[in-house]
Amino acid sequence: MGNEILITKKMSTGEVTKKYPATKAVFTKYFGKGCFDCPSFGTEDINLACMMHNTDVDKFVKELNEAAKQEASKTS
């Protein structure tokens, strides 16, 4: 345990931020504060969001997982 993948690039942006609220900081870092006002936010998958923002999806997913794991460690 501890190294399991929590988030994948196939998950939707909404699914990730709902399950792991700490990931919102990563979305803001890469996509800006307006990210959450975008009509596509919540329905598109992480891979598409990264393509639309010219962001390295593997690096992005890694940071999402780090944020989720930190959040989980604070609650356990």
TrEMBL record:
SUPFAM superfamilies: SP0561-like. It comes from the Bacteria. Residues 7-61 form the DUF1858 domain. It holds the Pfam family DUF1858. NCBIfam families: prismane_assoc. This is DUF1858 domain-containing protein.
